[in-house]
Amino acid sequence: MRRLRVLVLALAAVLGLTVWAAPAGSAAGTATYKVWHWNVAGDESNYNSTTNGLVDAILGSVDYRDPDFISLNEICPDQYRAVLKGLQERGWPQSSTNFARFEPMPDVDADLCKDDATGDSDPYGVAVFSRFAPSGTDRITLPSDGDKARKLLCVSIASQPGGLRFCTTHITFKTAVKPAQLDAVRTQLQQWTAAGGTVITAGDFNTQPHDTLLDSWYTPAVATADNGGNTGQFHELDDDDPSGLCPGWGEATTEGSLLGRCDQRAKVDLVWAAASRLVSYDEDAHPIATDRCTNRSGLYIPCSNHRIVDATLTVTTP
Question: Which residues share a beta bridge with 226?
Answer without folding.
Answer: none
